[in-house]
Design goal:
Strand content: 15-25%
Bound molecules: guanosine-5'-diphosphate, 6-O-phosphoryl inosine monophosphate, magnesium ion
Largest sheet: 10 strands, mixed
Oligomer: single chain
Radius of gyration: 21 Å
Number of helices: 12
Shape: globular
């Protein structure tokens, strides 16, 4: 029986997962999302066009690949419909190529309002959520109140919807100074529900396991990143799902014994969007230079991303939690014009040198300890082969592999599908 390979982010999201899923899709029969929802923004670039996907798996553009939205995902019918509409010019047979789990949960307009109300009430301590209703939807899931895709076919769906909304309105009433108009949001929601009804809705756990038995190859596409994981991220500044390899098991219904290779994606530096700790964050010209060269503005919200140097203690932790067997280094071209590059190898906490990510990353003062290496100062975006890469870039890759103990099999030098170098040791 085949195994499910996993591709996920090792940092705070936006590592470039969408691009690498797209590059690897020809090797797979099925691409499956297992968690998160429209808080994700996965960018794919090819043939001079840039696509941003939120809920739909990044294999949707390849003709011979099926795409599954698993039970662990939360779906906003409004955003989902917008995504489907954006795909119309590309004549994709959506009904044949996209399969949606009956057990995936629905994001209601009132979930979004709850997200906004909660963030407003938190004031300066806000999470910096994407305001897509992710937290409240997962709360209803674990609170056993949620609505699922399978429910939309029930005769009493509207009744179920009204009951849950009444509960949400009761909660919203407790927030001071939060005004809203739910009625204006509802027509688009029900339009999205009608669209969903017309698509292929399946028992995805059975489908995926049958596919494995038939020898099909499957790639699970993670959203967000390990440091945003609800259990292992920089809590409470995290998202509300398990973004790590283990999330594949619960989010698709595959047993741990069915997990194959785990490809961890990381940027050659580090970014974060939203609030929360970021030990290697830069507030100087270098940070500004990274943001500019890397076009570091959110694919979902357009917010400027916070930028800093690569953080090895955090990466080692992420590799450990995920059991990463292979790595992809993204956006190395963004470092093309730096004379020197800094690498955080350890943290200094209370005068002590540590090489791991501690529990109280949020409240403790963490001082990064850096090694400095020479930059390559060359345009790498046009490289066709890793063997032609400048020595300093190769030194950077070798150094990271030695520090992280896992092979960096891909080096990405630009956003386009073709700007991808294979690195065999
Ligand atoms: P994801 O959420 O992990 O899929 O990543 P995003 O799409 O949110 O953010 C990654 C951004 O970097 C997108 O704008 C990509 O087009 C872009 N990108 C991906 N790989 C590279 C690369 O190697 N170099 C550069 N310069 N940009 C890249
Ligand atoms: P992709 O899949 C980067 C961040 C938000 C916020 C926190 C909680 O594109 O890598 P949420 O809306 O989930 O309740 O927000 O998580 N966040 C992301 N940051 N990339 C993402 O997804 C993110 N999804 C959520 O900015 O700090
Ligand atoms: Mg993104």
């Amino acid at each position: 029986m085949n195994k499910v390979d996993v591709l996920l982010g090792l940092q705070w999201g936006d590592e470039g997962k969408g691009k690498i899923v797209d590059v690897r899709t020809p090797k797979y029969d099925i691409i499956a999302r297992f968690q998160g929802g429209p808080n994700a923004g996965h960018t794919l670039e090819f043939d001079g066009i840039k696509h941003v996907l939120h809920t739909i798996p990044s294999g949707i553009f390849r003709e011979n690949t099926l795409n599954v939205i698993g039970n662990g995902v939360v779906i906003d019918p409004v955003i989902f419909k917008e995504e489907i509409d954006a795909l119309k010019p590309f004549n994709i047979a959506i009904k044949d190529r996209l399969l949606i789990s009956k057990k995936a949960h629905l994001i209601l307009p009132s979930h979004q309002l709850l997200d906004a109300a909660s963030e407003q009430a938190k004031g300066k301590e806000k999470i910096g959520s994407t305001l897509k209703g992710i937290g409240p939807t997962y709360m209803d899931k674990t609170g056993r109140n949620g609505l699922r895709i399978g429910d939309i076919f029930a005769d009493n769906f509207r009744e179920k919807y009204d009951k849950l909304v009444a509960k949400h309105v009761g909660i919203l009433d407790h927030y001071d100074n939060f005004s809203y108009n739910l009625e204006t949001l509802e027509p688009a929601f029900f339009e999205g529900i009608e669209l969903l009804k017309s698509l292929t809705i399946i028992e995805s756990e059975k489908y995926i396991n049958d596919a494995l038995k038939e020898g099909k190859s499957i790639l699970a596409e993670g959203a967000q990143g390990t440091l945003l994981d609800i259990d292992f991220g920089s809590y409470p500044f995290v998202t509300s799902s398990n973004t790590v390899t283990a999330g594949t098991c619960t989010g698709l219904g595959v047993a741990p014994t069915r997990i194959g290779n785990v490809l961890g994606i990381f940027k050659a530096y580090c970014t974060r969007v939203g609030s929360g700790p970021f030990p290697t964050e830069l507030f100087d010209e270098d940070g500004e230079k990274l943001r500019k060269a890397g076009a570091e503005f959110g694919a979902t919200t357009g917010r400027p991303r916070r930028c800093g140097w690569i953080d090895l203690p955090a990466l080692r932790y992420a590799i450990m939690i995920n059991g990463a067997t292979e790595l992809s280094m993204m956006k190395s071209d963004v470092l093309d014009s730096f004379n020197t590059i800094k690498i955080c190898t350890h943290y200094k906490i209370n005068g002590k040198k540590v090489d791991y990510l501690p529990f109280d990353i949020v409240d403790q003062e963490i001082e990064p300890i850096y090694e400095e290496i020479e930059g390559w100062n060359t345009d790498t975006s046009q490289l066709n082969s890793y063997s032609d890469a400048p020595t300093e870039l190769k030194n950077y890759v070798d150094y990271l592999e030695q520090q992280l103990g896992v092979q960096i099999s891909t080096v990405s030098v630009g956003p386009d599908r073709t700007q991808t170098l294979t690195h065999d040791n």
